[in-house]
């Protein structure tokens, strides 16, 4: 507690410094032999003037110019009366340093000139050397003190400005990250709207087929009903995801409500890779396991993650070679996008609203997980694992 008090209260430190300086000055003055240099013996007036020179330093940070003026005037009287100087001159230097550190040059430069005059006067009446040398020493000494104090003032101002800029930058980064997630959620919601609309179209068509052949072809009608059941379940899941996406703060960016294209799936993966190749990045596609149709939402998630990963390769590692791996397992699909160039700087807070924030959001909505990071041997790797939810009717058709 005491340590915190000392660190948090400069007034405590300055008061202690002023008291110690006063005690040392008085002790030095009392112990010295004033008759050796023809100086005046320290008496009650000398003690009062010494206290007036040093004790005001307790508030030097709060009123630096006033403290300097009081100390200099008291010291001037002290020196004029012929008392021994002792440490009175040293504490005036500290007062001058404080003025230069806490006040702009408009105030600190005249203060330095005033203090230099006090110092020169003290040296002249003590007859410690030629007048020109005494004045020159006082000017040089005060110039050095002023430079030190002014440099400290500029350094403090720079640190304060840097702290403000850091805080502002952090707020802007948080705002961009929030904006990125919001825009990506809106985009996902639009695409989920397409998926749900597709499901509703399938249900409508299959319901018409079932009604038409209900009596003449019961097997076909039963298959249509099965398709309706599976598609409706998928539509329900997509609606739940859509509602989850829409649970976002109301501060939606205006430019996020632009037109949107039909939701792509894995059947358009080849077109995506061709576009990347045309842009200048060689891309290989490797498919492991038994490829099969998946739920449209899952395929859309995979497509967008691959698209975003390859876009980052185009931006940051265009001279590298990329590989897209699709590994079909019994219950999940593993997607791996890797390049052999320098690490790709994926940024969650890009102005386009893409990046890891959007990819992780997609993976989470479909019960998957996404990891990304640089590889030890070089390049960058993005791995997505999502449940391999079959498309409605796919299992039936495969039997």
Features:
alpha+beta, Single alpha-helices involved in coiled-coils or other helix-helix interfaces, Heat Shock Protein 90, 3 domains, five-stranded mixed beta sheet
Would you kindly provide a written description of the structure presented here, covering whatever features stand out?
The protein has 399 residues and is of the alpha+beta class. It has 3 domains: 2-128, no CATH class; 178-256, Up-down Bundle (Single alpha-helices involved in coiled-coils or other helix-helix interfaces); 266-398, Histidine kinase-like ATPase, C-terminal domain (Heat Shock Protein 90). It is 63% helix and 9% strand. It has helices spanning 2-8, 10-31, 44-54, 64-80, 88-102, 105-126, 131-212, 218-246, 269-278, 296-316, 356-365, 394-398; strands at residues 283-288, 322-328, 332-339, 369-374, 380-387. The protein is rod-shaped, with a radius of gyration of 40 Å. Residues 252-261, 344-353 and 395-399 have low confidence and may be disordered. Residues 302-390 form the Histidine kinase domain.
Give a brief outline of the structure.
One of its GO terms (cellular component) is membrane. The protein has about 400 residues and is an alpha+beta fold.
Task: Briefly note the structural class of the backbone.
Answer: alpha+beta
**How far is the N terminus from the C terminus?**
77 Å
Estimate what percentage of residues fall within beta strands. Answer: 5-15%
Biggest sheet record: 5 strands, mixed
Question: How many β strands by DSSP?
Answer: 5
Number of DSSP helices? 12
Specify the CATH architecture of the largest domain: 2-Layer Sandwich
Outline:
rod-shaped
- Fold-level CATH name of the largest domain: Heat Shock Protein 90
Order of neighbouring strands in the sheet with most strands: 1-2-3-5-4
Class of the largest domain, according to the CATH hierarchy?
Alpha Beta
Protein name: histidine kinase
GO molecular function: ATP binding; phosphorelay sensor kinase activity; protein dimerization activity
InterPro entries: DUF7134 (IPR055558), HATPase_C_sf (IPR036890), HATPase_dom (IPR003594), His_kinase_dom (IPR005467), Sensor_HK_TwoCompSys (IPR050482), Sig_transdc_His_kin_sub3_dim/P (IPR011712)
Keywords: ATP-binding, Kinase, Membrane, Nucleotide-binding, Phosphoprotein, Transferase, Transmembrane, Transmembrane helix, Two-component regulatory system
């Amino acid at each position: 507690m005491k340590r915190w008090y000392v660190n948090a209260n400069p007034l405590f430190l300055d008061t202690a410094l002023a008291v110690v300086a006063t005690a040392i000055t008085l002790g030095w003055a009392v112990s010295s032999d004033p008759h050796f240099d023809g100086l005046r013996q320290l008496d009650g007036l000398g003690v009062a003037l010494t206290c007036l020179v040093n004790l005001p330093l307790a508030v030097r940070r709060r009123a630096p110019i006033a403290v300097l003026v009081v100390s200099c005037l008291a010291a001037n009287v002290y020196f004029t009366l012929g008392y021994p100087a002792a440490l009175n001159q040293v504490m005036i230097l500290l007062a001058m340093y404080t003025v230069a550190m806490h006040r702009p040059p408009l105030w600190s430069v005249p203060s330095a000139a005033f203090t230099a005059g006090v110092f020169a006067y003290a040296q002249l009446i003590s007859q410690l050397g030629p007048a020109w040398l005494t004045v020159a020493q006082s000017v040089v000494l005060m110039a050095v003190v002023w430079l030190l104090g002014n440099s400290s003032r500029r350094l403090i101002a720079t640190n304060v400005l840097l702290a403000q800029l850091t805080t502002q930058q952090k707020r802007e980064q948080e705002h961009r990250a929030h904006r990125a997630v919001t825009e990506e959620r809106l985009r996902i919601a639009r695409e989920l709207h397409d998926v749900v609309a597709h499901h509703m179209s399938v249900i409508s068509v299959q319901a018409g087929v079932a009604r038409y052949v209900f009596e003449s072809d019961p097997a076909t009608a039963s298959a249509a009903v099965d398709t309706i059941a599976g598609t409706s379940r998928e539509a329900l899941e997509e609606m739940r995801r859509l509602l989850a996406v829409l649970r976002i703060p109301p501060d939606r960016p205006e430019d996020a409500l632009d037109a949107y294209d039909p939701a792509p799936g894995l059947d358009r993966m080849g077109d995506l890779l061709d576009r990347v190749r045309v842009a200048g990045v060689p891309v290989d596609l490797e498919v492991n396991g038994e490829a099969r149709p998946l739920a449209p939402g899952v395929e859309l998630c995979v497509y967008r993650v691959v698209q975003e990963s390859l876009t980052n390769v185009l931006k940051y590692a265009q001279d590298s070679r990329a590989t897209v791996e699709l590994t079909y397992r019994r219950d999940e699909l593993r997607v791996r996008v890797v390049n052999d160039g320098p690490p790709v700087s994926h940024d969650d807070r890009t102005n386009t609203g893409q990046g890891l924030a959007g990819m992780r959001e997609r993976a989470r909505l479909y019960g998957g997980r996404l990891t990304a990071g640089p590889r030890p041997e070089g390049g960058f790797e993005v791995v997505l694992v999502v449940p391999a939810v079959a498309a409605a009717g796919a299992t039936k058709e495969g039997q």
